[in-house]
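Morning - NAP inputs below, output right after.
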Amino acid sequence: MSHVNMTWLDLFRHGSRSRNSRLRLSTEREKKAMEAGNGCRPNITDDRWSLRGTTALVTGGSKGIGRAIVEELARFGAAIHTCCRSEQELNKCLQRWEAMNFTVTGSVCDVSSPVERENLMDKARSIFDGKLNILINNAAIGYINPAIKVTLEEYKHVMSTNLDSAFHLSQLAHPLLKASARGSIVFISSVAGFLGINTASVYGATKGAMNQLTRSLACEWAKDNIRTNCVAPGVIRTPLVRPLLDNKEFVAKETRRVPLRRFGEPKEVAAVVAFLCLPASCYVNGQVICIDGGKTINGNL
Ligand SMILES: NC(=O)c1ccc[n+]([C@@H]2O[C@H](COP(=O)([O-])OP(=O)(O)OC[C@H]3O[C@@H](n4cnc5c(N)ncnc54)[C@H](OP(=O)(O)O)[C@@H]3O)[C@@H](O)[C@H]2O)c1
């Protein structure tokens, strides 16, 4: 009991200390902006529907939702670096993007490895001259298994691929995003972070944690002009869920739950992600937006 009390007391003291030091460290400009009710710098511009001149790192850009995001951001004018584990798939995509006149580079990286994440960020830092406007934490694996059958190794692998990677990459990207003076992080979560789904307890836990991480970083890093948002897709037609799409019983049950009565397309997720990166959304911060045809708000039987 005393241990619990000590922990809370420490937390409280630490919280007070950091609040005080933050106030002391505020610049005169920030103080004036706060007093005028401006807070962090407003950055709505005439060019608010363009990403020209911006840089982006998108993990898992070779397939599905990640690939659609790379292409959507490139259409808005961003220069992009992406990654995946398969060199062959990456090279195929790079050729496709070159033919489309998009500015995209890529490297092989397994985001479940802390060392490879550091190498990835080093690469982005050198390509983009130390400045990054956009980080999209998209790469993840699906994992379905009844909770009692999940091994510790499997649990750790799903956590490191889906959640540790997103947190660590955000941490590594922080100085680059701050240096850009207009940073935006978008996490790709899932409706499984809101809903209880049999056999998806570990996958759902990675996404639920990501939803909360969004809100926490949105508060912690707003002062550095970094916005943090998240999208939570329902079932989207990608290679990840191909086996489910071939299952007629699943398709019938699932589409019945979705008011729009269909699954989503990768481009429908990419469009919302692009909006969250555009200056047009510069007052949107800390939000988790479901892109699920209305599945999570459907109360009908
Ligand atoms: N599709 C859906 O219905 C759905 C629904 C909700 C949420 N989501 C989320 O949306 C995101 C994208 O899913 P998706 O459906 O587009 O998946 P996908 O079709 O399987 O594509 C995943 C991408 O991530 C890469 N990737 C996977 N593991 C990686 C790793 N360890 N390191 C680096 N890259 C890795 C893959 O390339 P390599 O295999 O070559 O590494 C691929 O480019 C995920 O976060 C997923 O949880 C998807």
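Note: The first helix runs from residue 2 to 25.

O.
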